[in-house]
Amino acid sequence: MAEFLHNISLQDILLGVIAILFGIPLLVFGIMTFLYKAGLIAPPVRKPESPVSVTSENNTMTNNVFKQFWMQAILFILLSLMLLFGLRGFSQAKTAPKGMVLIPEGTFIMGSSDEEILWAAETFLSESLEYYRDETPAHPVNLDAFFIDKTEVTVGDFKDFMAETGQEPPRYFDSENFKAVTQPVVGVTWQQAASFCKWAGKRLPTEAEWEKAARGTDARMYPWGKKPEEKRGNFRGKKDGFRYVAPVGSFPENKSPYGVLDLAGNVWEWTDSWYGPHPGNTTENDFYGKKFKVMKGGSWFSNLDLARITVRGKALPTQKMNYIGFRCAQSLSEKAAAKN
C-alpha cells in the first residue's frame, strides 16, 4: 500500500477528479432523459405570450428538451470515453512490469558535496580527498519516470537468456560459489549485460537513473539512510553470513526509498554510462573519456565506503569479474512499445 500511495502523482489525482466531474453530469443527464422518456416527469411549462395551443407548445418544448439533453449527453459520453481511455493508458504506463519498480519523474541531487566527501574520508580513514573528487559536485538532475529491476539479474534469468539465444556462458558460470540460480549472475561483460537487457525488452540504466533509484530525493548516503550499517547488506567479510554473493533479496532492509533491493553490496552493477566528469567538475582525471563504463553499488568484496550511492566504480566493458553483475531498466515509452 505504501508503494502504491508513493506512486500516485498529482496528475493521477487531477485525472481522477476530472473523471468524476464528467461522470456525475453524464449520470444525471442519463437519468433525466430516461425519466422524460418514461413520462415520469414533465418538461417545464411556461405561460404562452400569445394564444397558442398549449399542447403544441408543450410538444415543441419537450422535443427541444430531448434534443438538448441528448446532444449534451452524447458530448459527455464522447468526452468521458476519451478520458477513460486516457486514464487506462496512463494507468498501464504507470504500472510497473513484473519484477520492476517505478521510479517517478522529478529532480534529485546527484553526486557528493565537498562536505560529504570530507565526511567519507574521515569516516573511512582515507588518506586523500582526491580519491573522492570524481563524485563532486553535488548537482540537481531531472529525470523522466522509468522502471528498474527490483533485484539484480540472477543466474536463473541468465540461463533462460542463454537457452533462447545461444549466448555463451559468462565467466564463473559453473563455479561452485557463483552458480546458484537465485544468486546474481557475475562474470558478465558490459556487452553481455546490455544484450540480456535488450533480449528482455529493457536496457541498462544510466548512472543517473541508478543513483536516483538508490537515493530518492533526500540526498542519502545509502539506500536505507545516512548511516553505514554492515548488517544491511552483503559486504566484505563473513559477518553477513555470506562469503561470496548472496541470493538476491536476502537483505530486505537493504531497500531504497522506492523499494529497490540490493543497491548496496552483493555485486557492482554495470550502467550504460561512460566514466566522465560530473557537470562542473574541473578536476583532471586520466581515466575520463569513452574507455571505462561506470559501475555502482559496491559488492561482497567491498567495504561500506565503496557501497555509498555516489561512489563511481569503473571497469573496461570487456572485464569479467566475480563481483560485477547488473540489473535492467526500462523507460515508460519502451514499455508501451514492448506491449505493442
Radius of gyration: 29 Å
* SSE string, helices as H and strands as E: HHHEEHEEHHHEEEEEH
**What form results from the Cα inertia axes?**
globular
The CATH topology of the largest domain corresponds to: paralog of FGE (formylglycine-generating enzyme)
What's the CATH class label of the largest domain? Alpha Beta
Strands of the largest sheet, in order across it?
Answer: 7-6-5-8
Query: What's the architecture of the largest domain in CATH terms?
Result: Alpha-Beta Complex
GO molecular function: formylglycine-generating oxidase activity
Transmembrane segments: 12-36, 69-90
Protein name: Formylglycine-generating enzyme family protein
Domain Sulfatase-modifying factor enzyme-like: 98-329
